[in-house]
Structure formats: C-alpha cells, structure tokens
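Quick entry between incubations.
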Amino acid sequence: MRWNRLALRRLDLSLNLAVKPAGQNSLNAADFIFAGIIHLIIILLIVILSWWQSVPDPEPLKRIEVQMISAKELAKLQKPKPAVRQKNKPFKEKAQPVLKLETKPEKTNKAIEDDFDPFAPMQSQSDVVTPKKALQNDMVDAIGKQLSQQEVDRYIAMMQQAVQSHWKVPAGVDSSTPDPLVEMTLRRDGSVLSARITESSGNASLDQTLISAIYAASPFQLPKQQFEAFRTNHLRFRPLK
Amino acid sequence: MNLKHYSKLALIGLATASLLFVGCAKKEVVTETSAPAPKASTAPVKTMVNKPTSDSVYFAYDSASLDGASKAALNAHAAWLMDHSSKSVTVEGNCDQRGSREYNLALGQRRADSVKAYLVGQGVRSSRIDTVSFGEERPDCTGSGEACWAQNRHADIVNR
Amino acid sequence: MRFMLLLLSMACSTSIFAVEFDVYQSEYRPLHLALVVDSYAESQSEETKLYRIVKNDLISSQSFSTLDPLSFIADANTTLQKIEYADWRIIGADMVTACLLTQTENGWQAEVQVHDPFRGKHLASRAFHGETNEFRTLAHQVSDFIYHTIIGVQGHFNSQILYVKKRGDHADLIYMDQDGSNRQPVGKNFTLLLSPDWAPDGRHVALNTYVGNRPRLETFDLATGKRSAFGNFKGLNSTPEYSPDGRFIAAALSYTGNTEIHIYDIKKNVWRQFTHHSGIDTTPTWSPDGAWIAFTSNRNGTPQIYRKRLSGGKAERISLKGNYNTSPVWAPHGDRIAFITQKNWKYALATVHIDGSGLRYLVTGQRVESPGWSPNGQMLLYSAENGGARRIYRIPAWGGNAVAITPANIDASDAAWSH
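Done. Structure below.
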C-alpha cells in the first residue's frame, strides 16, 4: 500500500514537471533541444540518403585481375608447362604460377641490382570510381523519383524560352545597370505563386518588365511528380547594354 | 607696216594657242614628268604666260606628302614668288568626300601646311604664305569614283 | 510553437533546392500604349492637337506603339475617375495613359494619369499648366512625363535641334523643335558653316564659320542673335565642343603648325593646349563628368579614337577595330561613344563602350557623318547622303529604324541636339 502510494506520488511529481513547462509562455531549454533534435534528424536523413545514392555500384560479377609481366616471367611460366602432359597436373600447375606471380612482385621489388628488370610489373591499384552528380540532382532524387539531368535541363530550357519570348524591353539600358535577379515560386499547375525581385536593376520600370514577362509566360510546363524541384526558381535577367 | 601687223597677229595667235595648252596642262599635271614653266622675267614683253602653269598639287589618299611632280610645280611657284617679292599667296587645302568632314578639315590643313613648308624651304618668306583648309566642302568634282576623288585631293596656290 | 519550428526547418531545407537560369534579351519591343485624351466641347481642336503631339513624340522614340482609339471601351473621363483595368487588358494595352485637357484663365491645364492594367496599378499622376502660346511645350511635358513614368528614363521631347542647310554657295543655320515643328533659320548666308554645338545653358551655340574664306570659331546667342568670335588663329579653327559644365570649349586649332586640341576658358578668355603630338588631333568630345576628352588622332598611322584625361597623362586608344574611326561623341550617360567607322568600303555609324568592347553598328550608308546624341542618350542623329542631297536621320541608339527628320529636297547636315 505504502509502496503504491509512493509510486503514485512519484508519478504525480513527474507529471507536474511535465505539465509545468507547457503552462509557461516563454521558451526554455527543452524547446530548443527539441528543435535541435528535429534539425539533426532531418540533416542526418539527408546525409544518409545522399551517401546511399553516392555509393558506387557493387563490384561486377566477374572480376579479372590483369597484370603485365615481363619476358622473363613469361619464360619462367612457360618452362613448367611443356613438362606437364597429364591432364590433372595443368590445374595444379596453373595454380602455382598464379601464386608465384602474386609473390614475385614482392621479390622483384626487393632485388635491386642483380635481378633488376625495368619491365617488371608494378603493383597496380584498381581505380575507385565515384560518379559525380549535381547536388541538385541528389536533392531531386532525395525528394521524389529520379529525374535525369537531361530532363531537368529540358524543363529549364522551356521555362527560359517562355520567359524570353515574353520579355518586352522598350528602350536602351545603361551599361552600369546590374543584371536583376527574380525569385519565382510556382504552383503545381505551373502558374505563378509569386515573383519577387531579389536583386533590383535600379530602374523600377525595367524591374517591372521582368515581372510582366514572368506572368505573361505562365503557366509553365512542369513535371507532375518532380514538381518540388521547380517550385522555387531564381531567374537572372540579362538586358542588352 | 604689213609685216609688223602680221607678226603681231601671228604672235597673238601663238599666244592664244599656247593658252589652250596651258588649260590642258593643268589637268595633266600629275602625268607630266617635267613641265618647266617659263620664267616671267625671261619671256618676251607681250607673253601671257608669266606665272607657273599649275596652281594645284595633288595628293594620295589620306596623305599630305608631296610627290615629284608636285615638288616640280612648287619649285616654279617658289621661283615666281622670289621674283615677285611683293606678292602674297594663300594655300588652300582640299580633300575628297570620303570619310568624316571634320577629319578632312584637318587633313586639308595638313596638305596646305605641307605645301607652305616646302615653299618656305625654297626660300620664300613664311609671312607671305597663308594657309586655309576647306576639307571636303569645296570639291572640284562632285561625282564619286577614284578619278573624281583624285581631282579633289589637291592644294591650290591662290593670289591674295 | 514546436510545430512552427518544425515547419520552418522543413521550409529552409526545401528552399535550397532552387532552379537557377539566365534570361537573355533577344530584341527590343515597343510597349502598346492606350493613349486617351479628352477635353470639353470647346477645346476639341486643342484636344486633337495634344493627342497628335504626344502620340507623335512617343512613337518617334520607337519605345511605344499606340492603340487605335476606336478600340477603346472606356473614355478618358471614366478612366480618370474610376479605371476598369479589365477593359484595357482585353484590348492588349501594356500601359494606359489618360489625359484631360481643360482651358484655364491664361492657358491650358493637362491632367495626366498613367496606369499599368496588368498589375492593376496606378503608376503616377500629374497636372501640367501652360500659357496659350506655350501649348506645344505643355504637350511635350506630358510626353516627357509619360515616357519617364513608364521607361524610367528622362524624356527628350522638350528639346530642340539645330542643323546646317546648304543652298548653293551659302549655308543657313536652322533651328527646330525635336519633332520638326517651329522650323526657322537663325543664321543666314554663311559662306561655310560647320559643327554647331549647344552650350549646356541651351541659349548659346558654338560654331565653326568661314568669314572671308578663313575659318574661325564663334559663339552665337540664340536669344539675342549676337555672334562673337573666340577662336581666330592662323590656319585651322574647327570642331568646337562645350564642356558639360559650360565653362570651357574644346576645339581643334592648327596655328602651332599641326592640328591639335586646345581648350578655351570662356570666362578667362585664355586657351591652353591639350594634345601635343605631331599627328592630326581633332574632333574633341567631353565625358559627362568632364574628366576626359575623347578625340580623333592619326598618331599611330590611321585615324582612330583616343581618350585622355583633362588632368594629363597618356592618350588611350578606344577604337580597336578597323583602319578608320573618327568623329567621336560621348553619350550623355557616359558609358558609350558614338562615332563614324569605315566598314567594307562604306562608312557606318556605330557605338562602343569606353573600354572598346560592345561594338554595335547602327547604320551603314553613303557619307554617314556627324553623330549627335539626344539629351537622354536614347536617340542618335546623323546625316547621310540620299541621292545627291544630305538628310538628317534619327535612330534609337539601341537599334531600331532610321527616320529622316529633314525634307528630301534640301541639303542638311551637322545636326546638334540641345541638352
């Protein structure tokens, strides 16, 4: 009975502790820790997924190790062969040269003056190939199904062409004018959610032609499933100067 | 009396004829290698020709250099000026119509200056020679093509 | 709170996945402008006049095309009071300008509004007043306002042009408004008249005239008609150019034995030599900040364009292509120089950046000469031969079409646009 009461009291206390922070209005350490943990989880997810994607394909089924051998070695190899005429022996003999070859490089490396053969095989190291992919593509893969770089480029080209053909510049622009940058966010159907000048050209009228061009070019053609990759776009406009 | 009369007529006829030749010579001054102009002082009293036959020298494109023919013509002018110390002249520089007019003003000036410098080098006092450029503003020939342009690239020596 | 943080962190992580690309300008295209002008019954002719002047101004810039008023759904009054943007979007107007003209005691008032129908935004409004005899000026002010509001660059419609008209052996100096109206001779019967240049004050003009067959430099006061010679040296006196602050005039003189650029201090009445080279140095032009002079020089064999600091130093060559580059004129905004260049046996009007890059050919033709900028750097004037007589043409500095601004039956050259 007593024991039960103690347990209950402990439970009570812990509950109180749990309730109290929620009652307070200001942030405390627990909230920050919670946020930090969420961030860490997401970052970890990203890292794991990217590593998973970037790991090279496993070794091919057949692996043939090829090494160059000098005339000397070949001669040595050929010597035991004519001696063997029985069927069983070639297998054994073959095994031996392989072993010999594997050990010989070490020997030739050690022998310096007497046995020095400039054409003696050097120990080769197989190349480790890591395929390079754009970070963008990795992210795209991370989010949804795989979209090849060519397809991404194609959609970008279509967007570029659409905006370019609708961009009306009515007058000359001073050479000192910086090239403006616009951030464009799209909806799933390709229509423009927002078009915002992030770097102005300094000429409000010119800035306006960019926005007009973007709206006139919409709706854009976007892939249905990989839409996320094209949600946000940064357009650098290059007026003639 | 008759003989005198006829000889006068003959002389006048000769003079008129030589005038015609003077006109032709002016246009062909570039091709003639040596056109020694008669000196005023040695000519007979009634002779019309007392000045150098050519008042113009011609230039190559975008150039103010004097060629042999030009120098020969200018020698004659220098000689005449030395003989007539009271006379002053203006050298007028001209250009063909190609290129920008402002640049051609300067080029024409250079041509005029080039002629003046040569005459001064021959002993004529600098103060007796003025220079002016008309650039391409006063072309002798208003057509196009090298024949016309060549005519316009000239400097004239004009009595003041 | 925690949920917000979660969302924020997710948003942050997704925004780094952004597509980036360039958008290049391939051409220039005029904006479709709906120009609505209205007035009260008794001002019908002025209303038409205003409409014509403004329309002509804006179209001449080649940055605008105007929509046919017959296609307008709404009239000016309604537009001025309560504009319906949809009405204008339907007819394809990129911009809408409504102007109401009313008669005042001693003149006119024009109320102007500029709207962007696609953004559904009112851009600007202003009221202009002018006296009866200043009607055209009022109209040009309206044009300037519309141009500036929509293009973001100062308008050039309230300006004048001078040019030389040759009649046989004589030359006249002709003055006109930039749209060709108000044409009148302000100087008559000159022997030879070349390269007029406007002073920044808009009242004085520097001229190269020939008096008694001798060239000299004169300033001419348009207000009083008075002339006074300021450069009368032996040899050549040519190509005068006012400095941007109006205190100096640069010119090409040859009295030193060789054509060089000299600078005249108007107030102090003194000259100083600017170039010192045995080659021909001529056609000076000032940078808008007054720190440089660009000029033509054949110091390296062929005529090319150089620039040199007023404070001294070596001349730098700007024209990098070809064997014949002359008559530089510095753009009012400073980044380009217009000049005449030889192109395939003909002469062309071209512009280039100060460092020699971005060469842009504008026009090639017979005897293309004497470039001159509009005060806002958007247009260029030049003269070209057209079947015997020369005409003055106007072309946008960024491309577009050349338009003649003098009649075909007179010989016109040496155009200069006021500041």
